[in-house]
Amino acid sequence: MCIGVLVWAILVLTLLPALGASVAALFPTLLGALCAGGVVGPGVQAALRAGRSRRLPVAAGAGPGRRRVVILGGGFGGVSAAKRFEQLLPWTPWLDVTLVSQRNYLLFTPMLAEVAAGSVEAGNVGVPLRAACPRTRFRRAEVLGVDPDRKVVHLRRGDALETLPYDHLVLALGAVPNFRNLPGVATSALTLATLEDARRLRDHVLGRLEQADHEPDPAERRRWLTFVVAGGGFAGTEAVASLFDLVHSVLRYFPHVRASEPRFILVHSRDRILPELGDRLAGYASGKLVGRGIELRLGVTVAGADADGVELSDGERVAARTLVWAAGTRPSPVPVVGPEGGRRADPGQGAVPVERTLRVRGRRDIWAVGDCARVPDLARPGTTCPPTAQHAVRQGRAVADNVVAALTGAAPEPFRFHGLGFLVPLGRQSAAAELRGMRFSGLPAWLLWRGIYLWKLPGPQKRLRVLLDWTIELLFPRDIALTTSERHQAPQAVE
Ligand SMILES: Cc1cc2nc3c(=O)[nH]c(=O)nc-3n(C[C@H](O)[C@H](O)[C@H](O)COP(=O)(O)OP(=O)(O)OC[C@H]3O[C@@H](n4cnc5c(N)ncnc54)[C@H](O)[C@@H]3O)c2cc1C
Fold first, then answer.
1. CATH class of 67-102+141-176+330-408
2. H helices, E strands: number in the chain
3. 115 phi and psi, to 5 degrees?
4. Which of 4-13, 203-212, 228-237, 287-296 bottoms out in mean pLDDT, i.e. has the lowest?
5. Which of 23, 34, 153, 471 has the largest CB neighbor count within 10 A?
């Protein structure tokens, strides 16, 4: 039906009136458009589903008897694996799939910066796992470790410790911020990896404006109003642009803060930001940011931080009370534990190395996908797949196929995926995009960004809510109510 409304809004409500038709006379066509959309939508979805199920990994013959598959991590990789297992259920009724995750929702990370900027409500970028994978058993718990000898996972649910047996295990635990042991960074930096981070960052920035608004000392004002972002990749660039938009859109409420006072600094180790984009687009993005007054510190890194400032690797100290860390992640640790639950080995910093089929090297029954896995990139031989949602989603689907293949005696297939491209929003209705070799910038790229990610957001309910948030943002100023605790809480530290 959303398709119908969209078609009606574009064709009937926009184009036809432009050609002279009366809007009131066109209203009955809404009913027709709704019916047409209601029929076309499910039809298209059914066709897509049928297409996906055509390549079945199930070998001929009977199933292997009841088999337990446990997926650890309810992010992009884990959820897409669970959904694919659900699609295969008619052919694999003997499968018992359990998804374990700390959060009970899939976090749509591409819109996290929009939450931090106050343009999208936090709840609208989290999709409940029980709704996304209705035929999968869900267990909300923290994974403490894996005992591959006993084939069990150790979990903590509230205060209770428990074990969960498996026949096949899929690791999809994602990544956590990596502060590289830099002094003071873990305790003073904010991150943008979870919904709590995004809420906290928004409130932190608004709190800084509240402080600056009645601060008479110019040096102190400068400290409150300087915002440093570490890391000029996609996440950092998007973060600095979003914070700039947030601050400038709410300045009307802070009469003693002049528009020229807030200072934004993006620190990046290389000689240009957005290394994944071609020179021209990265240059366009830099130009956009610099044109707004955002300072780029290139060829330097953050060397340390405390409550009053940020140290750079060239010796400069920036007086600031905000540091956002977007300069590195590391795969979530997956401790291997012994029979009594004691830690026996910890792969530590590295991602889990997997074979081309996504099977963990040296294990028949453990597989890994997404940011916690080191997956050979067959599209770019000699490299590994980048940590992106688009890769995690495809790996999730492929691993489900391969687990079923392994269980039915068929051969697991190598994972191969050519990335679709990159999109990075730059604030103020501009973006840079490189999709299948085509480049876009400015408003068209921004519309593309919004359109694509709105479409990719799982579930029509969340899509509508985000669309509503964006519409409200066009009509009203952003909200400045502080909704989290004032006290600065350090992010989950991984030094
Ligand atoms: C701000 C931001 C913006 C991004 N934008 C884009 C983008 O535009 N396009 C793109 O392709 N990629 C983007 N990414 C990257 C993308 O989010 C990741 O590559 C993707 O989420 C990886 O999927 P995953 O399944 O491996 O991990 P995740 O999606 O991170 O999921 C991991 C899951 O495991 C759970 N978990 C972790 N440890 C435990 C434990 N011990 N016990 C229980 N559960 C646990 C977590 O709670 C989480 O649910 C962005 C990332 C960030 C942070």
1. alpha beta
2. 15, 29
3. -70, -45
4. 4-13
5. 153
Ligand 1 atom 2 nearest Cα: 109
Taking a C-beta distance cutoff of 8 angstroms, is the pair 300, 178 a contact? Answer: no
pLDDT tens readout for residues 275-310: 988 899 999 999 999 999 999 999 999 999 999 999
Give the pLDDT score at 444: 95
Distance 490 CA to ligand 1 centre (A): 20
First CA to last CA distance, the chain? 49
Which stretches within 117-166 are classed as H helix?
Answer: 129-132
Both tokens assigned to 427: 């604030």
What DSSP letter does each residue of 376-388 carry, written as one string? EETTSTTEE--S-
Residue of 228, 100, 110, 214 lying closest to 157 (CA atoms): 100
Ligand 1 atom 52, closest CA: 109
Q: What DSSP element (H or E) covers 95?
A: strand 95-101
The pTM of this model reads 0.86
Q: Which residue minimizes the CA distance to atom 27 of ligand 1?
A: 174
Identify the residue with better confidence: 115 or 347. 115
Q: In what order do the strands lie in the sheet with 421-427?
A: 421-427, 430-435, 438-441
* pLDDT tens sequence across 1-19: 555 555 555 555 555 555 5
Two structure tokens written together for 265: 């600094």
Please indicate whether the domains covering 67-102+141-176+330-408 and 185-327+421-475 agree at the CATH topology level: yes
Pairwise CA distance, residues 437 & 215, whole Å? 50
In the chain, where the domains are located: 67-102+141-176+330-408, 185-327+421-475
Token digits for 224? 């409150």
Highest mean pLDDT among 230-234, 276-280, 333-337: 230-234
From 70, 72, 76, 415, give the residue whose CB has the most ligand 1 atoms within 8 Å, as the site to mutate: 76
Q: Does residue 8 contact residue 29 with C-beta atoms inside 8 Å? A: yes
CATH for the stretch 185-327+421-475? 3.50.50.100
Q: Quick one: pLDDT at residue 493?
A: 40
pLDDT at 185: 97
Cβ 4 vs Cβ 38: under 8 Å = yes
